[in-house]
Design the sequence.
């Protein structure tokens, strides 16, 4: 009888647990261990989505799904053929976790509590006999043709195969132990972040939500659409987060000093807006601008935009001249703001960068240089836009890595 094969999963987050469970289910006779650096498992899962856990996005079309990844879209398109969003639904619901699709396509547990996801993982690991270890600080890996030796604070241990699910790292130094193996590392940078606008009067409207807006980076072709949230430090919401993901590297090169152009009316065109304003003048000319808001924007935001356009809110619509209409049109469709810095969600940070995708065989998630090493999750140079896509990448790459360890 041969010796029992040993598999180590480095990282006890979303990808790590999925890889461990997949490995144990596909290789039931192997010993599978999860080695987590901190003192708690699945910390990011716990706080994600405001503590609700946006597990995936309702997107059965693989091409469309892969288009939600600024980095990794081509590689994930292949990987999704092995495990896609539809498989995520089946995986969780077959284990008693009911899921609900919201109108924006985001998918959350019906319980609206991330703890049900954590409980599902912990219970499944217990049933399968997966070994769970916390406070495992990995200092070095030694890779031979037949084994991987892990140096950590506890001991030096040897495994037949290791799956690295160490998560995104805010600094390149956090990936030095992988660079030491000859792996190419792409400089890690924040991917999802909000835009800071210090001392801009727009922050007085903090808490205001515009359901549909379009935000562009001035001087580029980059744009983001969706809800826009005004905060006490600037702007956030899906439109901004989308833009930050697609522009992660460009905005880092600009040192997060740039200008944005906001279309407060989503993608409304100038001719259509001018027609609307002409109708307002003809039908409601006797009313003050402060009392007749022809847009879907809140009255608070509408009055703020009148100030930005240097138009008196006490003026009547019939008195608004051509020059003022031009300024109002430009403010509503092309409002310019200077951005000076960013704010990242520290606990939920998502990074662009990590292990270069050219290092990985996406059919197996194995390293091309070291076949007894696999990678899954955000340690790779993969990141998605907001809406459950980053978890889907973790489930997909974790599932494949676990399935193909041997």
Sequence:
């Amino acid at each position: 009888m041969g010796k029992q094969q040993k598999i180590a999963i480095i990282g006890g987050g979303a990808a790590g647990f999925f890889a461990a469970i997949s490995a144990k289910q596909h290789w039931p006779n192997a010993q599978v261990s999860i080695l987590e650096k901190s003192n708690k498992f699945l910390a990011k899962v716990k706080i994600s989505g405001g503590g609700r856990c946006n597990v995936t996005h309702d997107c059965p079309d693989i091409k469309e799904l892969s288009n939600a990844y600024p980095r990794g879209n081509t590689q994930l398109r292949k990987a999704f053929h092995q495990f896609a969003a539809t498989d995520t639904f089946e995986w969780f619901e077959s284990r008693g976790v009911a899921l609900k699709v919201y109108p924006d396509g985001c998918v959350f547990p019906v319980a609206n509590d991330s703890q049900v996801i954590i409980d599902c993982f912990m219970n499944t690991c217990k049933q399968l006999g997966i070994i769970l270890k916390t406070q495992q600080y990995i200092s070095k890996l030694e890779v031979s043709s037949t084994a991987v030796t892990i140096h950590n604070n506890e001991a030096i241990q040897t495994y037949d195969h290791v799956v690295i699910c160490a998560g995104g790292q805010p600094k390149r130094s956090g990936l030095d132990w992988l660079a030491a193996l000859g792996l190419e590392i792409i400089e890690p940078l924040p991917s999802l972040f909000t835009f800071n606008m210090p001392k801009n009067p727009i922050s007085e409207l903090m808490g205001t939500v515009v359901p549909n807006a379009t935000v562009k980076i001035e001087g580029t072709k980059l744009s983001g659409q969706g809800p826009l949230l005004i905060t006490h430090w600037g702007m956030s919401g899906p439109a901004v987060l989308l833009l930050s993901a697609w522009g992660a590297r460009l905005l880092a090169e600009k040192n997060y000093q740039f200008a944005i152009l906001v279309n407060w009316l989503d993608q409304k065109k100038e001719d259509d807006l001018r027609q609307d304003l002409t109708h307002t003048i003809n039908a409601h000319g006797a009313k003050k601008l402060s009392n007749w808001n022809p847009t879907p924007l809140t009255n608070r935001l509408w009055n703020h935009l009148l100030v930005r356009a240097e138009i008196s809110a006490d003026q009547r619509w019939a008195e608004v001249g051509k020059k003022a209409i031009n300024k109002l049109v430009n403010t509503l469709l092309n409002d310019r703001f200077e951005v000076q810095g960013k704010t990242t969600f520290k606990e939920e940070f998502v990074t662009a960068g990590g292990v270069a995708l050219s290092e990985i065989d996406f059919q197996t998630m194995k390293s091309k240089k070291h076949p007894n090493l696999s990678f899954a999750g955000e340690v790779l140079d993969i990141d998605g836009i907001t809406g459950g896509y980053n978890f889907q990448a973790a489930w997909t790459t974790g599932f494949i890595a676990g399935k193909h360890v041997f």
Notes: Residues 6-190+346-403 form a domain with the FAD/NAD(P)-binding domain fold (CATH 3.50.50.60).
